[in-house]
Model the fold of this input.
Amino acid sequence: MKLDSRPFVPADPAFASRVRESFARQGAMATIGARLAGVEPGYCAIELVPTPALAQQHGYVHAGVVAMIVDSAGGYAGYTLFPATASVLTVEFKLNLLAPAQGERLIAEGFVVKSGRTLTVTRGEVHAQSAGRRTLVALMQQTLIAMHGKPDAPAA
Amino acid sequence: MKLDSRPFVPADPAFASRVRESFARQGAMATIGARLAGVEPGYCAIELVPTPALAQQHGYVHAGVVAMIVDSAGGYAGYTLFPATASVLTVEFKLNLLAPAQGERLIAEGFVVKSGRTLTVTRGEVHAQSAGRRTLVALMQQTLIAMHGKPDAPAA
Amino acid sequence: MKLDSRPFVPADPAFASRVRESFARQGAMATIGARLAGVEPGYCAIELVPTPALAQQHGYVHAGVVAMIVDSAGGYAGYTLFPATASVLTVEFKLNLLAPAQGERLIAEGFVVKSGRTLTVTRGEVHAQSAGRRTLVALMQQTLIAMHGKPDAPAA
Amino acid sequence: MKLDSRPFVPADPAFASRVRESFARQGAMATIGARLAGVEPGYCAIELVPTPALAQQHGYVHAGVVAMIVDSAGGYAGYTLFPATASVLTVEFKLNLLAPAQGERLIAEGFVVKSGRTLTVTRGEVHAQSAGRRTLVALMQQTLIAMHGKPDAPAA
Done:
């Protein structure tokens, strides 16, 4: 793995609380029981406990639910590097499903690959964790857009 | 739009009931309130009513929820052409988000582009419907795999 | 096929000559012998005659050569709708290969799905034509960005 | 970067010569002047020197040419792990373009993420190298299929 790896410097020192507040406004994350598990410059992790309410027809977590957590992890990874006056939208993502999404816990991680003024590219991984073993269940590549002048939070 | 358009002939005449039963086993579709709205050879439609429980941080339906319904629509479109003894898995999909997913109703449609013995390729669209107007909100391209000898339904 | 299909109105009436001049500046298109075969608002077609110089290891046209013509077709489809003062860059594309790329002729077509001020989304198809039969060999979904204030042509 | 990283064990000890012979049969690689620069289990690198004959309209290497080398790098990375009796086809790939492809040399690298009996998933990177500096210019995610019983080389 030899991606460029300059350390990322956030434009807004309050990036982590900005991510936490935005995550808390997502009804969809609450509905599936997802939890914000880590926020660093250019990085975000989201955890999920598989339940029958999140299953597809064979009992594994639905590919779309896997997409929900890794799209959000990638989106917030990018958002950590945005100025406070911008919000983030997903332009597109591509997701490969590599193994059944099951186990005690799913961990979705988003990593910024390139952060530009308008567009940001991230990659994402989802691992299933069970009895101390991690299995890679999904791989994502994503494009984000920064909406400058449109802060994420509604004005008070 | 000039895609090849031979009419598809299902291998299993009971394809529609097979899709309905499989859809009914998906806890995730019930959790988000999605409804199977149409099944034809090489085609499937799924509808969803936006609610705050499905929202991202700006109040629109989460991109991952959009992914859930269009991934399922594409998967079942492919599955209509499978023999009764096979089940379907998503290998990968790519989703572009084109407009905010909001309105009275979202309609996800999956269309088979090419159905092979092992791999099937579909395309998908999600439209938002509001006051009689339809807006294209997402566009998908997807690869499926047929798991031969592994019927979708658990043995009774 | 039910994509939104408003007729596209080009911002620049000279869009077709702009596309032709830009295509003529592409050394890569000359190297592979690609020919501009059609330009309409929101649409572009590029043709290619398969030769051993374009082949992968089994003698079919290389997937990357297929990508070259359909990426260009999609890019110019988007570019037809740009103002004369903007140029076009590919942000990303996703390509499914559906059948061996061989025959008398390959025809790549790009169709604009949504044209925005900054981002444009297109879809693309590549058909092989042989003895009067057309076979779909590849399917693409693409995101473009308009570089405003950077005309495609070098200043004279 | 925390992808699963078991060392890969090739099924065929002659994997490297198999890759070299296959690469040598690709007319397309010769046409663009690409060179096989490294082959290891689950890994392949291909180099290319930018020339005007490979350029798009602004003088950078065409996105499709970038796709050619990274698609081949990913394909051969997967092929290193195949048995001698199988050949490799690209099912699909998705490519993000991150920076202009220019400089003294482009280096495309393919990395196997998951190698299965039928499907293999890889990721790819393309760096531009100039005056000792490396810039990431493209990021790929790819699905391959193994064609068992169809060796890559034509029977003598």
About this structure: The interface with chain D takes residues 1-5, 94, 96, 98-99, 109, 111, 113-114, 121, 123, 125, 134-136, 139-141, 143 of chain A (CB under 8 Å). The two ends of chain A are 44 Å apart (CA to CA).
